[in-house]
Design goal:
384 residues; Aspartate Aminotransferase, domain 1; Aspartate Aminotransferase, domain 2; 2 domains; 12 helices; globular; binds pyridoxal-5'-phosphate
Length: 384
């Protein structure tokens, strides 16, 4: 395995295909009709993934995922609104921070990092505070990999006449979200996650009526999704310099997404990756942080080995030298590390990653010699 092109087992940026990277080899004029068609086609395909063409607009936005989350809250929550933020990890905390920075009133409801928010809790909180106008949650909380019960929470929010904002950054494209059955004002994701594009643009599926009523809400010129959409609808162009190469790469990534079989196939591959990872790591004696029932097939958090010879930085460098990039843990109480299941990689790649992890831990004298049932130590892993 060369260190020049490691497999990224991280939740984005992640490993992309050669075709996707190749699509960035051309320069595009931002006013050019062909580029406008590319943008329109990307938005249309993104909307189709949630079956949202009749109910929602797709509003793309330059920047990383957080830019789009901030834009959604800033645009869709009126200045006198109040957001109930559901937290069970770092990205939920970031939602609250965004509300604080933007000066939107908010309250938080926090559960443990291994405890999904329940719809019953949301109902109780909505009944207790009628001033809440919006509920914001993370679908798959990437800081652990926990899955929150989105459809149940969405129904409760709707029943109480409140609006829902969903950060589906690391789940969109791999886990089903159907806009015809899951009511929401905003669902936010980005180019460089489960669609396997490159990072650089986010997008917000905004309820058409909610967006039409959002004129003047936003605190910021560049983050105003009402303006961004209005300009794009009128001219076909992005309001400010578009991330042309990112759009071209996403268009190519979407072609491959459909060739693979769309969401069901993407989900199946990631679920296979996740299972291969869990099986291999369990055989090494490494424990995952979450029980299977609440583990999304996106990223897995593992307890770090207890051995004093284990240091994440050393471990990371050793695994990287074997061709795989891991992710540090993001928990405050327990020492962990994370391994992503998403990107242009399959179960064979995940098994090779487990082998690299086993070797690295052995080299650090942290693990006993590999047992007979473990994957072979030789051989390179290449993405798909
Ligand atoms: C659930 C979730 N929300 C928000 C973000 C923030 O995205 P970014 O780092 O691209 O700003 C991420 C990034 O992985 C995420 O997983």
């Amino acid at each position: 395995m060369t260190t020049a092109a490691p497999i990224l087992l991280t939740p984005g940026p992640l490993t992309t295909s050669h075709r996707t990277r190749q699509a960035m080899m051309m320069d595009w004029g931002s006013w050019d009709e062909r580029f406008n068609q590319l943008t329109a086609s990307v938005c249309e395909q993104l909307l189709a993934i949630i079956d949202g063409a009749t109910s929602h607009h797709c509003v793309p936005l330059q920047g990383s995922g957080t830019f789009a989350v901030e834009a959604a809250i800033g645009t869709l929550v009126p200045r006198n609104g109040k957001v109930l933020v559901l937290v069970n990890g770092a990205y939920g905390k970031r939602l609250a921070k965004i509300c604080e920075v933007l000066g939107r009133d908010f309250s938080t409801f926090e559960t443990a990092e291994d405890e999904p928010t329940s719809a019953a809790d949301v109902e109780r909180l909505l009944l207790a505070d009628p001033s809440i106008t919006h509920v914001a949650l993370i679908h798959c909380e990437t800081s652990t990999g926990i899955l929150n019960p989105l459809p149940d929470i969405a129904q409760v929010v709707k029943q109480h006449g409140k609006r829902l904002i969903i950060d589906a950054m690391s789940s969109f494209g791999a886990l089903t979200i159907d806009a015809r059955h899951v009511p929401f004002d905003a669902l936010i994701a980005a180019s460089g996650k489960c669609l396997e594009g490159v990072p650089g643009m986010g997008f917000v599926f905004a309820d058409k009526q909610a967006l039409a009523a959002a004129e003047g809400n936003c605190h910021s010129l560049a983050m105003d999704l009402f303006d961004q959409h209005a300009y794009m609808a009128k001219t076909g162009q992005w309001r400010f310099t578009p991330p042309t190469h990112v759009v071209a790469a996403l268009h190519e990534a979407l072609l491959q997404y459909h060739e693979e079989g769309g969401l069901p196939a993407r989900h199946q591959r990631y679920a296979g990756n996740c299972q291969a990872l869990l099986d291999g790591m369990t055989a090494l004696g490494l424990r995952s942080f979450l029980p299977g029932a609440i583990q999304a097939p996106i990223i897995v958090t593992f307890h770090a080995p207890k051995d004093p010879r284990y240091q994440f930085k050393d471990f990371y460098e050793r695994v990287k030298a074997k061709g795989f990039i891991l992710y540090p843990g993001k928990l405050t109480q327990v020492e962990t590390f994370r391994v992503g299941c998403i990107g242009h990689v399959d179960a064979a790649g995940m098994r090779a990653a487990v082998t690299a992890i086993a070797q690295a831990l052995q080299d650090m004298n942290v693990l006993e010699p590999l047992g007979a049932g473990l994957p072979a130590i030789t051989g390179d892993a290449v993405p798909l």
